[in-house]
Amino acid sequence: MKFLKRILGICETQTPSTENSWTYAAPTITVRLSRLPEIQKPGGAVRLEGAGLSGKILVVRGTDGAYHAFSNRCTHMGRRLDPLPGQDRLECCSVSKSTFTYTGAPVSGAAKKPIKIFPTRVEGDELKISLD
Fold first, then answer.
1. Which pLDDT tens digits describe the chain residue by residue (132 residues)?
2. Please, are residues 59 and 46 in contact by the beta-carbon 8 Å criterion?
3. In Å, what is the CA distance from 49 to each residue of 1, 57, 59, 119?
4. Domain limits of the chain?
5. Tell me, which fold does domain 2-130 have in CATH?
6. Spatial separation of the C-alpha atoms in residues 47 and 54, rounded to whole Å
7. Is the Cβ–Cβ distance between 108 and 132 less than 8 Å?
8. 87-108 in b/e burial notation, b at 16+ Cβ within 10 A?
9. Cβ–Cβ contacts within 10 Å for residue 56, how many?
10. Global pTM?
């Protein structure tokens, strides 16, 4: 089944399970951490799409506990990314398995260009992601 998902470009990371867990007011995404169980623990991730965003965003809670935000678009074929369990790496959901570090650098697979990363900061119960 996983190989079929790769052929079709279907990623594993889901959109938020809780409504109203994040908002976007250009240029900042505000995530209410208590309303987003997907990123409560290290290794968790969630896709943010729609709500006026010009692109797709992937938010990951790294194995170090820090929050990371990325453009959710592989630089090889444009497909979505997923975190690799237990690693500070992202992998494209396509057959090419392009892999990137949390700094955005490509480390394996067909992609040669880095993915865009966005600065994050935690303020109380909110994660702020700057899209500037």
1. 566 655 656 667 788 898 899 999 999 999 999 999 999 999 999 999 988 888 899 999 998 899 999 999 888 877 889 898 888 989 876 667 789 999 999 998 888 999 999 999 999 999 999 998
2. yes
3. 25, 7, 11, 18
4. 2-130
5. Rieske Iron-sulfur Protein (2.102.10)
6. 14
7. no
8. ebbbbbbbebbbbbebebebee
9. 17
10. 0.90
